[in-house]
Amino acid sequence: MVERNTQIDLVLPFYNDSDKEWAKVLYNYMSKENSNDRQVTGEERYRDWENLKYWFRAVEKNCKWVNKVYLVVASESQIPKWINKDCEKLKIVLHKDYIPSELLPTFNIMTIEDYFCKIKELSNNYVYCNDDYFFLNETTADMFFKDNKPVYKDTQTEIKKLDTSGIDGTFYQILNNGMDMQLRISKNAHWYAFDHLPVSHKKNFELEILNKYYDDFINANNKNRFRDRNNLSNHVFLCLYKDTMPYIKYDNYKNSCYVTITKNTNFNDFKDKQMVCFNDTQRLEQKDFYEVKNRMITFLNNKFPDKSCFEKGGDNMVKLETIYEFTLGRFKELKNVVRKDINKNDEGRLYIGDTFECEEELANYLTGNNANKMVVAKVLEVIPEPKKEEVKVEIKEEPKVKETKKRGKKSKK
Length: 413
Hints:
Number of helices: 10
Largest sheet: 5 strands, mixed
Oligomer: single chain
CATH topology of the largest domain: Spore Coat Polysaccharide Biosynthesis Protein SpsA, Chain A
Distance between the termini: 78 Å
Number of domains: 2
Radius of gyration: 28 Å
Order of helices and strands: EHHHEEHEEEEEHEEHHHEEEHEEEEEHE
CATH class of the largest domain: Alpha Beta
Structural class: alpha/beta
Low-confidence stretches: 388-396, 404-413
Number of strands: 19
Mean pLDDT: 88
């Protein structure tokens, strides 16, 4: 059995855009704080790509070394309906379980990530992921930890404040705040750039820093429920670790990359990469979002068609009829597709009058339970999952053997 101080967990914070109740809270605070910073309240920060299940499928297939995945959400209502809560490799963590109450509710990823080290049962070695980081091909544990030390690229440079006047000004100011903290704490302060990809963390080290400078983190994050120029990022933990602790120097991202999604992004160009961040920014206009999103889901569905242990199984099948022509990235999940017009049979495209069957979760998506609330099909019939017949095993009792009394021989007198 792997010891707890050497096993590796993944931590994944997630915001569920389809949760209407939480959306009300979000937009209520957004209107109160009235931020004009696009990095904070831009629609691209909350667009739902509806591809989380493929993130989990990729982890199951390409990260055999992972102990558990810690899915971090704001509330119970934020947990996707398809998540298998009974999965042994999954731990669901609510914000209230580890973030100080005075900072809640929060929509600030800086606050959410700064306190990961307070999550109970989380292994000392963990990898922080975002839901746009995809493990597209096989990875190994020693890409992240070796001999119980984290693996990092050698990116050491002298500390030099970043220019905060551009489009990324808020984020760069947050990094500058971390540099100020480094200079106060470390005698060997340097700047270390990190790729926007899965990165290794040491829980106990971060917990020690957080407890020692607790007020600094509270004061940095309590001014605003959203990302703010006063914040501290957990990037400061990584820099302080590299300043003061031993680590393995290795370019673990040499076959990985960061991609800013645009309307022209060809996802197949990255199919052979180990890890890719498909990042959504304002460079993808809303008018192009749904078409690009569909292309991404098609790519991911082709790459990871099989359900993972993190997803519920045994959904009912539903028969539907198309009422609005559309292209479906998850076309391969459909069964018994019947074309109304046999001449219209493009794979991936459904036309008005076509009928098909799919699992209940996808049926809900097509009948309006999706990010843009669009209804493209109507339900014709729900086909319950066939009940497994109980096999009755008759246990036949072995026939009792009659005991016969042995008669002794009569002695001759």
